Amino acid sequence: WLYLRHRKERQQRSRRLRDLRALALGQGDFQLRDTAGAARSKADFLGRWVLLYFGFTHCPDVCPEELEKLSRAVELLERDPALPPVQPLFVTVDPERDDAAALARYLRDFHPRLVGLTGTPEQVRAAAAAFRVYVSAGPRDADGDYVVDHSVLTFLLDPDGIFRDCYGRSRTAEEVARSVRGHMDTY
């Protein structure tokens, strides 16, 4: 019975991974720059588990909350030295205001290994499109300020760069960490 149960679970995991690959979510590459100005692509993060969030530095509430949750999840995973490290990434959806310096200032309040990425509007659009992230800049106010509406999801990529899962606002840091651990265990 245990053998059959294990075999069925393995088949379900295999089918889920096949279905995720069929979505072609996050399978494209991206060409962006980090806060030090270095060119970065998805290939730079192969070999590591990645938690990736798209947002912007002028976000009044959602992005800071999600980055705090992402940071907390990474810290929870770091408590177990047997687990491989997770690389947290933040990709801006507002390259007009989020240059490397703005990202560096903003991200210093979160996890110390959180890497911020920006680029030209075209590069950022391409990165968002690879993950099917919705992005729409709102109208400008009298001061020229605006809010960017975007998908609120944190993506998990395995060491092969394959999309494994995504986490919405309703998931806690503990739930995200537990899910990531589960994916690591079955990798």
In words, what does this structure look like?
- The protein has one domain (1-185): Glutaredoxin, CATH 3.40.30.
- α2 (62-78) crosses α5.
- The protein is built from five helices and nine strands; from the N terminus they run αβββαβαβαββββα.
- The protein is α+β, with helices and mostly antiparallel strands.
- It has a seven-stranded mixed beta sheet. Strands 6-7 form a two-stranded antiparallel sheet.
- The longest helix has 22 residues, at 2-23.
Number of helices, counting only DSSP H or I runs of 4 residues or more: 5
Shape descriptor reads: elongated
- As a percent range, the share of helical residues equals 25-40%
Strand order within the widest beta sheet = 2-1-5-4-3-8-9
- Average pLDDT number: 91
- Given helix and strand content, the structural type is alpha+beta
Oligomer: single chain
Task: Give the C-alpha Rg.
Answer: 17 Å
For this structure, what is the CATH class? Answer: Alpha Beta
Distance between the termini: 23 Å
Number of domains: 1
Corresponding CATH superfamily: Glutaredoxin
Binding site for Cu cation: 59, 63, 150
Subcellular location: Mitochondrion inner membrane
Family: Belongs to the SCO1/2 family.
Protein name: SCO2 protein
